[in-house]
Amino acid sequence: MRHGIHPESRPVVFRDRAAGFHLLTRSTIHADRTVQWEDGGTYPVVDVEIPSASHPFYTGTSRVVDTAGRVERFQRRYGATTPVRA
């Protein structure tokens, strides 16, 4: 590995505020904010919108994100789904 051409890797906390998930790992990403970690150290923190803790691909579950009542409006317009016949 050639020296001087790779970015510096350091410990960084990735945090999802919605799911309450946080992970300390090594990364080359730059962050302006810091957070106090469980071991007493202070590390840069990056807030992410969809981490593996809440993403349906990793969790195996799906969530419906309803904004402005669109699901209810769809159900009113087209009715509830019919039961699947066996």
Structure report:
The protein has 86 residues and is an alpha+beta fold. 15% of the residues lie in helices and 27% in strands. A four-stranded mixed beta sheet has the order 2-1-4-3, with no helix packed on it.
Main structural class: alpha+beta
Q: Rg to the nearest angstrom?
A: 21 Å
Shape: elongated
Helix content: 10-25%
List unreliable stretches of 5+ residues: none
Strand content: 25-35%
End-to-end C-alpha gap: 60 Å
Strand order of the largest sheet: 2-1-4-3
Keywords:
single chain, 86 residues, four-stranded mixed sheet
Brief sketch in words of this structure:
The chain is built from 2 helices and 4 strands; from the N terminus they run ββββαα.
Q: What are the SSEs and their pairings?
A:
Elements: E1 10-16, E2 21-27, E3 34-36, E4 42-47, H1 56-59, H2 70-78
Parallel strand pairs: 1-4
Antiparallel strand pairs: 1-2, 3-4
